[in-house]
Amino acid sequence: MTQQQVVPVLEIGGTHVTAALVDLASHGVLAEHRGHPDAQGSADALLSGWIETARLLGDVEGDWVVAMPGPFDYDAGIGRFRDVGKFDSLDGVDVGAALREALGADVRFVNDADAYGLGEWFAGAGEGSSRAVVLTLGTGLGSAFVADGAPVSSGDSVPLDGEIHFEELRGLPIEDVVSRRALMAAGLAATGVERDVHELAIAARAGEPAAAAVLAAGFSAVGEVIRPWLDRFGAEVLVIGGSMSRSWDLVEPAVLAGLDGWAGRLERAALGDTAPLLGAAWFGRGSRVV
Question: Domains in the chain, ordered, with CATH?
């Protein structure tokens, strides 16, 4: 795959697809279009939706990079979405071949969490570091381990597949401790009121002790579960993004407590939805997963 400074990118999520032209030199997005195919749709409907969105960019030059959630065979370009609640119709489908034929260009795939992490390392809160760990706090707990511009997903210095959500804390899967569903369940148990995480945050700021305690325990768990991996990986910076990072006033002190004196930097993600676009484009320069 040839190096290029302006890279066409597809970023695929469970509820959206974004097509963008990314300028690596300026760290900018030159054009961007969104579509919303149904993740439960047929393989033809999903692929058509992605291709139609890509074509909204017009005639573009160069090879494409696609940021795709797992489970997916990123080298072969084949879906492995069996019984995961989204894209099931693409299980076993050669997505790469379909996109190459439709777009008339080569296509390379990168994990969506890795793309997010690369973007923050390359042009966001982790810029200037050699080794960064980037977490996303939202529906679940996502992670990327980035070393000198390459995602690391194997070896003793990272969790299984580089994914922190496989870890346990005090005998529980970490996403049973900190995730949207886990915090909502803890909030209901502690307060008797069913509320989403942002509503718990509002209550905590308003001085409701039970809501504050629920969030402090959950966000502290993030620091606890990632701390040993920060040490093993030799991370200089921990970046946290995702929807829950909007409550940084509550997230930061609790994560710091869980990190228990870790010497590196804790930063809030800086790029938002632009991060996976920039990261995918960076990956297209010729990065490889280690």
Answer: 6-112 (3.30.420.40), 125-270 (3.30.420.40)
